[in-house]
């Protein structure tokens, strides 16, 4: 009787712990013999219903392998977990601190830049306010001081004469030139000044309508002194122009009703008006001529 040899692979694919593979050998031919084509006769599925699951059944019924022993104890695992948490928390805090520092530095930089801009703007504003105040003060002075100078012309001239007499006591003659509207008042005012300082020369008051009201000129043999408000205003405007760094516009012309007192056209005689004075005067109000 012929035998059939089952084909087997050289490599076994069975589970390592499964029971050893059955030894195979020649498959006996059933009593009925082979079929017409020389193959094994077909076995009814009812006779061997689980023939195909035999190997699976054997693998499932085999005992499971024991798990490998734990490499770390529970305490070690907990300690490692705690250490990891602490490290992560520390790193997070460091990153948060670095981020906060960067944000703080950026905010401070913006604040400093904003303060610099505000300081520059405030300085420019303050400078403009100061210039505006200076322009306003000059405008007010131009409107008020001429009238004030005319109103206080006599006392100012008295102080100038009183300050000059001690330096000209050896002069034989002193001429005081003022606007005609002030001539008589100055004659009356300088008499006590002459007596008080002991001036023995001739003191003459002469009207000069070419002088502005409030100005005066004192003349003696080799010199003189004057009170010149026009020149004083020019100096003031020059100082203001340098401060403002701009050209100061000229004053507006006075209104017809803002003129001073009526001009007098009276001429004094050579011997008239000898007077003496008794009041002080500021030296800066005059200029000596030699």
TrEMBL record:
Keywords: Cell projection, Cilium, Flagellum, Protein transport, Transport. Residues 33-48 have a biased composition (Acidic residues). GO terms for cellular component: cytosol. Transmembrane segments: none annotated. One of its GO terms (biological process) is protein transport. It comes from the Bacteria. Residues 1-70, 246-290 are annotated as: Disordered. The keyword Transport applies. PANTHER family: FLAGELLAR ASSEMBLY PROTEIN FLIH (PTHR34982:SF1), YOP PROTEINS TRANSLOCATION PROTEIN L (PTHR34982). This is Flagellar assembly protein FliH. It comes from Roseospira visakhapatnamensis. The lineage of its organism: Bacteria, Pseudomonadati, Pseudomonadota, Alphaproteobacteria, Rhodospirillales.
């Amino acid at each position: 009787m012929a035998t059939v040899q089952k084909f087997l692979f050289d490599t076994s694919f069975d589970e390592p712990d499964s029971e050893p593979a059955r030894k195979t050998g020649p498959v006996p031919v059933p009593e009925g013999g082979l079929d017409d084509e020389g193959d094994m006769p077909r076995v009814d599925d009812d006779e061997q219903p689980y023939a195909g699951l035999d190997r699976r059944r054997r693998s499932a019924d085999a005992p499971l392998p024991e798990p490998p022993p734990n490499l770390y104890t529970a305490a070690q695992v907990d300690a490692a977990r705690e250490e990891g948490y602490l490290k992560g928390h520390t790193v997070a805090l460091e990153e948060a601190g670095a981020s906060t520092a960067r944000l703080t530095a950026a905010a401070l930089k913006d604040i400093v830049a904003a303060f610099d801009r505000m300081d520059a703007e405030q300085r420019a504003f303050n400078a403009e306010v100061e210039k505006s105040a200076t322009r306003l003060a000059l405008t007010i002075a131009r409107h008020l001081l001429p009238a004030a100078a005319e109103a206080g012309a006599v006392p100012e001239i008295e102080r100038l004469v009183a300050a000059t007499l001690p330096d000209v006591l050896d002069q034989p003659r002193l001429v005081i030139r003022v606007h005609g509207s002030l001539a008589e008042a100055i004659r009356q005012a300088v008499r006590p000044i002459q007596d008080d300082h002991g001036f023995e020369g001739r003191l003459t008051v002469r009207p000069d309508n070419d002088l502005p009201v409030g100005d005066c000129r004192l003349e003696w043999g080799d010199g003189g002194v004057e009170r010149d408000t026009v020149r004083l205003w020019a100096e003031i405007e020059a100082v203001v122009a340098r401060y403002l760094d701009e050209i100061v516009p000229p004053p507006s012309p006075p209104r017809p009703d803002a003129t001073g007192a009526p001009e007098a056209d009276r001429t004094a005689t050579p011997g008239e008006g000898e007077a003496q004075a008794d009041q002080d005067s500021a030296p800066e109000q005059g200029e000596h001529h030699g």
